[in-house]
Amino acid sequence: MELVPYTLKDATLKELGKTPAPHKTRIRIRQNSWIAKMACWCIKEKDVAFTLFRTIHLSHSTPRVFLNNQRWVAHELAHVRQFATYGNVKFIFMYLSESFRNGYHNNKWEVEARANEDSVDILQDYYFEYTS
């Protein structure tokens, strides 16, 4: 998995030889995210990743720690695909409705993401940018 700081411009990336393949989708990683920290509080977990559109928000982990856990990355990328499949606004509505009805752990979108945790082939479709 490729990890590049997203403060770099395309020209700088080319100079470094880090231009991602055109078929890969860019995913941003935000470290120390208040959104992810709120999710920690809501689901009573110590460390979470929270995916919103094509950005993965981390509560306490670093991008390197997160990316070294392929199952965790595959789980969050399943959410990226869910957003892409259903559309941003529609998926947020469906996800929240499902959470209110069945709770976080029984939410069908979370069940689907957990089922995709072993699908590490999904990792090849993306590259990651982060803020330091």
UniProtKB/TrEMBL annotation:
Residues 48-82 form the eCIS core domain. Pfam families: eCIS_core (PF13699). This is eCIS core domain-containing protein. It comes from Arachidicoccus rhizosphaerae. The lineage of its organism: Bacteria, Pseudomonadati, Bacteroidota, Chitinophagia, Chitinophagales.
